[in-house]
Amino acid sequence: MPFSLWLSLAAICAMGAMSPGPSLALVLRHTLGGGRLPGITAALFHALGVGFYALLTVWGLGALITRSPEVFQLITWGGAAYLAWLGIQALRAGKAGAISASAVVTTNRQAAKEGVLVALGNPKLIIFFVALLSQFVTPDMSIIAKAIVILTAMLIDGGWYVLVAVGLSHSRVLPWLQRHAHWVNRVTGVLLIALALRVVAGPIMIG
């Protein structure tokens, strides 16, 4: 995989990980409720759930493209529409709902379980992988290229949420994020809409 293409993949994965939503709220909640270790545990197990979707994408989507490109096109457009809707919702949200998590007492086991379940049950993640990560997948991709896609998605997701947990366990970070939540929403909204337009424009070709 060319380095320039990998940078595009990494940027898309980073934007998906950093966008406010249930995954971020999960890590915040376990960090605030149990400290650094439960927060990191939630982050790492969430990354495992992300890796599962990445694995399904690289192994299953090539066959789907080969058998029915029309179905793939419909899925891609549906994903783009959903991303645009998320962007509009983020722009309209203002300060409300950007980053909210209540502190509750938690354990490492609970953090691990919820980390996986939130990843697997998050509809944004499902469509994110079908609509966006699939742009990097072709039926004739090598095993190494597929592994790079999977590992990139996992490492960026896990790395970001580990940083969140470590940062919040110190902590002047959360109040700052809450004060600037409207800017988090605005930037996220613009990026999501731009990415939706990119998806509609056509697949990202792998050289």
Count of strand segments = 0
The biggest beta sheet reads: none
Low-confidence stretches: none
Give the N-to-C terminal Cα separation.
8 Å
Gyration radius over CA: 17 Å
Estimated structural class: mainly alpha
Mean pLDDT: 76
Work out the strand percent: under 5%
What is the total number of structural domains? 1
Query: What count of helical segments does DSSP give?
Result: 9
Q: What is the element string, with H for helices and E for strands? A: HHHHHHHHH
DSSP helix fraction: over 70%
The shape, in one word, is: globular
Question: What would you call the quaternary organization?
Answer: single chain
SSE topology sketch:
Blueprint: H1 3-18, H2 22-34, H3 36-67, H4 69-93, H5 108-121, H6 123-131, H7 143-168, H8 173-179, H9 181-201
Helix pairs in contact: 1-7, 2-3, 2-5, 2-7, 3-4, 3-5, 3-6, 3-7, 4-6, 4-9
Transmembrane segments: 41-65, 116-137, 143-166, 187-206
Membrane topology: Multi-pass membrane protein
Keywords: Cell membrane, Membrane, Transmembrane, Transmembrane helix
Describe the protein in words.
This protein is an all-alpha fold and 207 residues long. The chain has one domain. It contains nine helices and no strands. Helix 1 packs parallel to helix 7 and helix 4 packs across helix 6. The longest helix has 32 residues. The radius of gyration is 17 Å and the shape is globular. It starts with a helix and ends in a 6-residue tail after the last helix. The model has no long low-confidence stretch (mean pLDDT 76).
